[in-house]
Amino acid sequence: MADDLKSIKRPERWDVPYCQEGSGKDSPEMTDADVDRLMQTPLLRQMDQSRFPESTSLRDILLNDSRLRQFKKGNIVVRQGDYGSSAFIILTGTLRVVLDTLDASVTGRQEPQQKSFLSVLAQLWKNPSEPEVRNLERKLSLGSGDTTVVTAGDTAVFVQDVSAIIKDKRTAELRAGEIFGEIAALSRTPRTTTVVADSDTELLEIRWQGLREIRLRSPEFRDYVDKLYRERSLKTHLRETAMFKHLDDATLNKVADVTEFLTFGNFDWYGTYSTLREASAAERIQKEPVVAHEGHYANGVYLIRSGFARLSEAYNHGERIVSYLGRGQTFGVEEVEANWRDGTQIPFRRSLRALGYVDVLFVPTQVLEQYVLPTLPKSKKPQDSFDTTTLRRQPVRSKSSKVSPEMLEFLVDRRFINGTATMIIDMDRCTRCDDCVRACASTHNNNPRFLRHGPISNGFMIANSCMHCQDPVCMIGCPTGAIHRDSAHGRVVINDSTCIGCATCANSCPYDNIQMVFARDANGRLYYDQATNQPIQKAAKCDLCAAQLTGPACANACPHDAMIRADMRDVERLAEWLGKQ
Amino acid sequence: MTLRSRRNLGISLFLAFAAAFWLINYVMTVRLRAAATVSGLVLLGLVLGLTLFNARKKLPFLPLLRASTWTQIHIYAGFLSVFLFGLHTAWRTPSGTFEVILAILFLAVAGSGFVGLAVSRTIPSRLTIHGENLLFERIPAMRVAVRREAEELVVRSVTANNSSTIADFYEAKLRSYFVRPRFIFSHLVGSRRPLLKLISEVDAMDRYLNAEEKEVMAQLAELIRTKENLDFQSCGQALLKGWLFVHIPLTYSLIVFAIVHGVFAWSLS
Question: Is the pLDDT of residue A93 over 60?
């Protein structure tokens, strides 16, 4: 082998069992005896092991993708708002789910670790001259690297007096045999509640890769999880929605009883994304499943639970986009409220279509008129409330109407609305000086983590940089969980130590924003696999400069205010920035 | 803050500082104090401060304000330095070789800065609307690829049609166009006349060609347009990057000369 190569063993899935990963790596090692004991729990006992292939047997999944966790009374197990990547099965003890939001000081929310001023400054002379330098011989030292890994369940926050802190909060009890945390783990969303140990407990924590595998192979487990998912998701989401917040428990339950949980489109939307992107606008819109039709009777209100939806109105022979809706936004409230208030029969003014997939909650008009609208406080009434007599003549007003329809079409059709930190460059101001690229390289060991290139519309470029998506499909299929959300900010980051270079994330990213790079040692020699002689690869992408003191160095370094890392959920700010230019 | 309101703020601050310096200079001159020493020291300090922007660019990982804020400060402080230079020299041409060189250096730095500002504000939008936006570093390779494609087309045409008409035309009119960047001055001034002239020459060949050859010529015309965009993007981006190669070295020379000038002035005062 040539001198410029260095031989090591290629990293593989399960090289690092879950019990050794992250800050929960103090968990005891899973043994065959542990697995035998787990197989006796009711939830796992009912599973047919023959449905699992030999290479990923249920026992192997439990050995490698799960770990046993002990929590003392008062420990917070998961925190509301954290991006979890695992679910928990209660083996012994009881836990309490806090349905209301707890104060941050109680939950001890931690910022991810940042570099000190000196270590930041040291980048000036310490950055290696060779590209993609790593120390792989250090054999997978976990939990650090360029980014901070804080896994849900590893919060290790102790609440002194649980009963006093949660006495004014709405809570529910969880007992042995029950599962929790599965919603966040399976739907790539933040934890919806905080869970505190009510007694000394033992939990089985399963990372989402294993959870998906089990869900795929065991229909019983799938049915059970789906049932919980629907039940828990529904109630939590209703409680989060402004128009239901004023309702007491009894009334909310009545609303929940008749609320329908609907799914439109395909959860694996990214599979057809590339082909659809090439289709004409008319073809694309034809393929989008319609949730509600413009001109149809306003039969209820739709609440977006996850995914995205296009809001459009008929224009000549086509559909003109008005806006896009994401998690937490509603459709049809104005019409239903106006009809109830004025006794009219105004139909839906716009159509609602699933972009890829969308999970919605549907609350019928009759229920809203009976339980919700009569007691709706004035402050919660729809801001876009209108005069029904002039309805048809009024242009549709929305925050996004400040963004040109062409720009909206561009952002929606290419699904850039998925980003929470989309890199947008104003090409009329960008002098192509590449200060942004150099700043990125300086903060990442001389390796730029984005490409100043990408599609352009209306003079604005969406550059090839990780957008830190609301629905990060890149995380699907990562066999080790190396790509994950940091729990404090929701940034999608890669734990370089556990990345095995399988390129699943890079292939899954619909926007081609993850690069596979060849790892080298400090002397620039390529690492290669002892068995296959193939070079060792690692996935690399923008981490929003999580470890730096400045935030994203790229946008900070732009001398002409030509760049923004835009959260596409904040359409108002986006419109303001686009308009400012 | 919109860009307009930011511009208004910058101009207001510039005018306020300029007025303050003018007043101080006027009062000191009337009272027969060393106004030139003060304005010279402030000017030197300002020029040294302006160079810090380049240092800031080398330290993107330190929380030292956004680079765009530095740019704004740099622009208006640059304007202010020109005003101070005027006050310092009493708006007269300096005498003495050293002072003339120093003045020329200052004006060259200020002038290149103004050119840079103008270029930075006008070229990007022209690059955006002109055609496909390209990475500067990739343009030479793309130029080679376009030339190869054109040559392959011509060679295939000769073989297929048993005629050298297109090859002769290529050799006479197009070869020099494809082998290197062309029409640089036209690109700088925004003229498309040379391109249109070349395309019209291609069109004029049409009457002498059969159907297959016409198709080849149409493809060549498309490659001419592609090459024109490559040259335009390359030229525009080179200008956007290039002015700094004048501005920065001149700045360092200016600083050296200004310090020597200060030392002389101080020792002789």
Answer: yes
The string of pLDDT tens digits covering residues B16-35 is 999 999 999 999 999 888 88
Chain B residues 216-245 within an 8 A CB cutoff of chain A: 237, 240-241
Interface ipTM > 0.95: no
d(CA A330, CA A332): 7
Which residue has tokens 């956007």? B240
The structure tokens 């992107």 sit at: A277
Check residue B205 and give its pLDDT.
Answer: 92
Confidence band, pLDDT 50/70/90 cuts, at residue B217: very high
Q: Which residues in chain A have Cβ-Cβ distances shorter than 8 Å to B240? A: 431-433
Instruction: Judge whether B122 is closer than 8 Å to chain A, CB to CB.
Output: no
To which H or E segment does residue A162 belong?
helix A162-165
pLDDT confidence of residue B118: 96
Sign of CA dihedral A423, A427, A429, A432: positive
Answer for the pair A152, A178: CB distance below 8 angstroms, yes or no. Answer: no
Q: Is the pLDDT of residue A476 over 60?
A: yes
DSSP per-residue codes, A395-418 = PP--GGGGS-HHHHHHHHHTTGGG
The span from the CA of B208 to the CA of A386, in Å, is 69
Helix (H) or strand (E) run with residue B43 in it: helix B35-58
Q: How much is the pLDDT for A382?
A: 66
Half-sphere exposure of A531 (CA within 13 A, CB side): 4
Whether the per-residue pLDDT at A139 is higher than 60: the answer is no
pLDDT at A51 over 80: yes
Q: Is A122 on the interface with B (CB under 8 A)?
A: no
Whether A435 and B120 lie within 8 Å, measured CB to CB: no
Backbone angles phi, psi at A317, to 5 degrees: -100, 10
Helix, strand, or coil here: A262? strand
* Distance separating alpha carbons of residues A319 and A314, to the nearest angstrom: 5
Rounded CA gap, A14 and A495, in Å? Answer: 15
CB pairs under 8 A between A and B: 84
Decide if A547 contacts A147 (C-beta within 8 A): yes
Inter-chain CB proximity A428 and B241 less than 8 Å? no
Helix B211-268 crosses helix B35-58 at what angle (to 10 degrees)?
140
Express each pLDDT in B69-125 by its tens digit: 999 999 999 999 999 999 999 999 888 899 999 999 999 999 999 999 999 999 999
Predicted pLDDT at A54: 86
d(CA B174, CA A309): 52
Interface of B with A in 135-174 (CB under 8 A): 135-136
A540: confidence class by pLDDT, cuts 50, 70, 90: very high
> Computed over its alpha carbons, how large is the radius of gyration of chain A?
25
Return d(Cα A450, Cα A491) in angstroms, integer: 16
- Which residues on B lie below 8 Å from A433 (Cβ)? 240-241
Asked if the model's pLDDT at residue A271 lies above 80, the reply is: no
Q: What is the pTM of this model?
A: 0.79
Residues in chain A with CB shorter than 8 Å from the CB of B2 are 580
Distance CA B36, CA B268 (A): 13
Helix (H) or strand (E) holding A314: strand A300-315
A456·B68 Cβ contact <8 A: no
Residues in B touching A432 (Cβ below 8 Å): 124, 127, 136, 237, 240-241
Bridge-partner residues for A312, per DSSP? A321, A351
Q: Which of B61, B122, B240 to mutate to test the interface with A (most CBs of A within 10 A)?
A: B61
H helix intervals, A6-54: 32-38, 42-45
Mean per-residue pLDDT, A573-580:
87
CB contact under 8 A, B59 and A124: yes
Query: In the structure encoding, which two tokens stand for residue A315, read together?
Result: 């224009």
